[in-house]
Amino acid sequence: MGNQMTEMLKGTLEGIVLAVLSARPAYGYEITARLRDQGFSDLVEGTVYALLIRVEQRGFVDVEKVPSEKGPPRKVYSLNSQGQEQLDGFWTTWRFLTERIEQLRIAQGEGEN
User: Fold this and answer.
1) DSSP per residue over 1-46, as a string?
2) Which of 26, 38, 86, 99 could form a disulfide with 30 if both were Cys (CB 3.0 to 4.6 A apart)?
């Protein structure tokens, strides 16, 4: 199941990270830790950092450099209005897909298990 989970996450991770940021601003490691706490235990930190670079380039987040007790300043990401629009679109698509997938599962008789 690990490989299947990894493949499915590739298509949804941006929306998941934007959802995390909609709750409150966070830096990369903090986002990874929150997701791991939610059960995404195999999530690699580098994957989250690469995604944060992409969402920053696409204009979905605002970035503020905040002093750190250890080492260089941290980049704290916060969801902006363009990112909120992207997240809203993600949730609309997510609902559509989950409804259709559930219909397929029930049609196959899987809903009784």
Assistant:
1) -HHHHHHHHHHHHHHHHHHHHHHS-EEHHHHHHHHHHTT-TT--HH
2) 26
